[in-house]
């Protein structure tokens, strides 16, 4: 999968309605930290751990100001996780390890694996 560019507020609403888990990157073209973390996000979008499970999207806060305002974006980069159309988490800053933890937290396969291992340990006792 790739990182999809969101160009309108309507496209954003369709995206979070159609995809179970969405990681949205609010960035600006002039933002140094945004440019620094963008290649890592692109790699995660292609990683089998997240590919086809988490929908990676981004939007330029200057190009889509109505979306930035609706989401209350005050700093870039801001990453927001939507699950089943609802905002469930938010992270500010270009911190790859922390962002990776956020991705793992909402990755359906990771959650399922964690639940299964907990169930196995309960039955083993």
From TrEMBL:
<dbReference type="Pfam" id="PF00085">
    <property type="entry name" value="Thioredoxin"/>
</dbReference>
<feature type="domain" description="Thioredoxin">
    <location>
        <begin position="1"/>
        <end position="108"/>
    </location>
</feature>
<dbReference type="InterPro" id="IPR036249">
    <property type="entry name" value="Thioredoxin-like_sf"/>
</dbReference>
<comment type="similarity">
    <text>Belongs to the thioredoxin family.</text>
</comment>
<feature type="region of interest" description="Disordered">
    <location>
        <begin position="106"/>
        <end position="125"/>
    </location>
</feature>
<dbReference type="InterPro" id="IPR013766">
    <property type="entry name" value="Thioredoxin_domain"/>
</dbReference>
<protein>
    <submittedName>
        <fullName>Thioredoxin-like protein</fullName>
    </submittedName>
</protein>
<keyword id="KW-1015">Disulfide bond</keyword>
């Amino acid at each position: 999968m790739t990182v999809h560019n969101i160009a309108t507020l309507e496209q954003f609403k369709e995206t979070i309605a159609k995809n179970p888990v969405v990681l949205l990157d609010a960035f600006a073209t002039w933002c140094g930290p945004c440019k620094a973390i963008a290649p890592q996000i692109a790699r995660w979008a292609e990683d089998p751990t997240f590919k086809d499970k988490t929908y990676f999207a981004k939007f330029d806060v200057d190009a889509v100001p109505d979306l930035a305002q609706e989401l209350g974006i005050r700093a870039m980069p801001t990453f927001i996780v939507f699950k089943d159309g609802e905002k469930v988490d938010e992270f500010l800053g270009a911190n790859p390890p922390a962002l990776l933890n956020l991705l793992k937290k909402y990755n359906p396969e990771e959650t399922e694996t964690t639940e299964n291992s907990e169930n196995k340990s309960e039955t083993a006792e």
